[in-house]
Write a structure and sequence with these properties.
- Its main location: membrane.
- The chain crosses the membrane at residues 38-61, 67-88, 100-121, 178-198, 210-230, 250-269, 290-316, 336-359, 391-408, 414-435, 447-465, 471-489.
- It is a multi-pass membrane protein.
- The structure is a single chain.
- With 500 residues, the protein is mainly α.
- The protein has a single domain (33-138, 201-374, 407-497), classed as Up-down Bundle (Amino acid/polyamine transporter I).
- It is 69% helix and 1% strand.
- It contains 20 helices and two strands.
- The protein has a two-stranded antiparallel sheet with strand order 1-2.
Length: 500
């Protein structure tokens, strides 16, 4: 029998999904439960290690934090830790797909849950797009290393291709004119990942596990081998003096460290992706909390060590913005290491893309099951593969098209803004649930919850406040669009409109 749900106010935007309804959803789930404790942890590491190490370190250190990038990673890691502890308690209570969206729906209310779900769409979709473009950049670097030089118009979006062509012409090179350009590698890799995800979670997890082993080994290699080329003079000054640009934004100094923390925060969303896979975990109440905390701790330590080695090998203002780790070893004459790091970066970014797109479809699935999105599209499960195949193909289509045709600049901050708000909301929601439902079974309990929740809310909102003004403005526009969609469609189609 299905669990009976309590009567809810069908008119209020603050209406909450009864916890009994979650139990009914879990019993009816068509997803395969195949993920083990370490399989979940591997998914978390797969999402975290990639863009942060191989891409964002150069931008964050060069333009914002200098050698103090290690402090930025530490700051972002601490803010994530507070949220992770709260996530872990929620994941043990509600082991369902949907992540922060599902948790908020059962505690804070529908409008907040919708906004969090809407922002998670931004987080995962734009995150996957950014990673696809970064993947293309490293793939192009690999082709150059083996002597293959594909035309600009085949490796870049139209705007970026023209910019590169003009720069090369100014440098004296002859570049033929072109009227069409597309980032073909970014387009194709998204569809490879989409195919893996449609085939099934077991196949996706197996692919991810192999990639995780390769890139974790490479990151450890970077730390150990790079340590022999560290020059302590590159760490001086460890915190460069503040510089204010023409827009009034402060670079370096404490403000620069905080801004850099907001930028690299994008690289920490892996543990959030773990919670989206609860519906496919064998023992979600115990294994999801473990995987959330374990993946965050492992990756934070690796990030801090890599940032210290990288800024020790190359002076911060000379770091390459696109491929900082590979370029650092190239500057030391370690060509063989450049091959290894470039290949690992390609593999690493592939797994990040895989987990992000995986998480995106599970967010859609959770929202569609609640009636907030069309069920026939977003909640349709393939009869053989047991995956949400329609939404997976839709996500693949959107991500591949945007990655192929659009120049992606500073989008990591936009992804971070959605994540930061979701994390702050979860910290408040788990505290609220502890007060409202003190006798609820909690296989995992967040220690010192009032302190952890308060610090989590403050830390995440503080980092959000220090994001660039244009990022915050774009985020407000996205949220406004989400509110419009909610009132035009989701509120009227919500399952909570039906008392049965």
């Amino acid at each position: 029998m299905e669990a009976k749900v309590k009567s809810v106010d069908t008119t209020s935007i603050w209406r909450k999904k009864p916890l009994a309804a979650y139990e009914a959803d879990m019993k009816k789930s068509e997803l395969k439960r195949v993920l083990t404790r370490w399989g979940l942890t591997s998914l978390g590491i797969g999402a975290v290690i990639g863009g942060g190490v191989f891409v964002l370190t150069g931008i964050a250190a060069n333009e914002w934090a200098g050698p103090a990038l290690a402090l930025s990673f530490m700051m972002a890691g601490v803010a994530c830790a507070f949220a992770a502890l709260c996530y872990a308690e929620f994941a043990s209570i509600l082991p369902v797909e949907g992540s922060a969206y599902a948790y908020s729906y059962g505690t804070v209310g529908e409008i907040f849950a919708w906004l969090i779900g809407w922002n998670l769409i931004l987080e995962y979709m734009m995150g996957a797009t950014t990673v696809a473009v970064s993947w293309s950049g490293y793939f192009e670097k690999l082709l150059h290393l083996v002597g293959i030089n594909p035309p600009l118009w085949l490796m870049n979006d139209p705007v970026t291709a023209q910019e590169k062509a003009e720069a090369l012409r100014k440098a004296g090179e002859t570049i033929p004119d072109f009227t069409f350009a597309v980032n073909l590698p970014a387009f194709l890799i998204v569809w490879v990942v989409t195919y893996i995800l449609v085939k099934g979670i077991k196949e996706a997890a197996s692919t991810n596990n192999v990639i995780v082993i390769v890139k974790v080994a490479t990151v450890i290699f970077v730390i150990v081998a790079g340590a022999f080329y560290v020059e302590s003079a590159n760490w001086t000054p460890f915190i460069p003096n503040p510089v204010v640009d023409k827009t009034g934004q402060t670079h370096y100094g404490f403000d620069g460290i905080v801004t850099a923390a907001g930028i690299v925060f994008f690289a920490y969303i892996g543990f959030d992706a773990v919670s989206t896979q609860a519906g496919e975990a064998i023992n979600p109440k115990k294994d999801v909390p473990f995987a959330i905390i374990a993946s965050l701790i492992i990756c934070t330590v690796l990030y801090i060590l890599v940032s210290l080695v990288l800024t020790g090998m190359v002076r911060y203002d000379a770091l390459d913005l696109k491929a900082p780790v590979a370029q650092a070893f190239a500057d030391k004459g370690l060509t063989w290491a450049v091959y290894l790091i470039t290949i690992a970066a390609i593999a690493g970014l592939t797994s990040v893309m895989l987990v992000m797109m995986l998480g995106q479809t599970r967010i859609f699935l959770g929202m569609a099951k609640d009636g907030l999105l069309p069920k026939n599209l977003f909640a349709s499960i393939h009869p053989t593969f047991k995956t949400p195949w329609k939404s997976t193909i839709l996500v693949g289509g959107i991500v591949s098209t945007v990655a192929a045709l659009t120049p992606i600049d500073k989008v990591s901050e936009l992804c971070s803004s959605g994540t930061l708000l979701a994390f702050a909301m979860i910290c408040g929601a788990v505290w609220l649930l502890r007060v409202r439902e003190p006798n609820l079974e909690r296989p995992y309990r967040t220690p010192a919850l009032p302190v952890v929740a308060t610090l989590g809310i403050c830390a995440n909102l503080y980092l959000m406040y220090h994001l660039r003004t244009d990022t915050k403005l774009t985020f407000v526009i996205w949220c406004t669009l989400g509110v419009i969609v909610y009132f035009l469609y989701s509120r009227r189609h919500s399952n909570l409109n039906n008392q049965e």
